[in-house]
Amino acid sequence: xxxxxxxxxxxxxxxxxxxxxxxxxxxxxxxxxxxxxxxxxxxxxxxxxxxxxxxxxxxxxxxxxxxxxxxxxxxxxxxxxxxxxxxxxxxxxxxxxxxxxxxxxxxxxxxxxxxx
Length: 116
Known about the structure:
Blueprint: E1 3-7, E2 10-12, E3 18-25, E4 34-39, E5 45-51, E6 58-60, E7 68-73, E8 78-83, E9 92-98, E10 110-114
Parallel strand pairs: 2-10
Antiparallel strand pairs: 1-3, 3-8, 4-5, 4-9, 5-6, 7-8, 9-10
């Protein structure tokens, strides 16, 4: 079955960096666009970024543009999110999702907390 497992979350200071990973299995990863979404405490889901199946095209939410970079390694069936210049408002549970819009199958999430 389709499985997505996120990792790499944790506590970071404002201005710091984290790199999230999403290991995919149960489907042909290289043929699907993928996305990252997040959910802050008490709020709804926010789409963060989308990446094409080959990785050549990426789109970002305005809230993270210029700070976050999404990439993928299709040989390793893994999606990444490099997060730099982190802000307290980036604190959320981060999920990877199959598909560009974020509305597809999701993993269990990894918590990112940005605090001094």
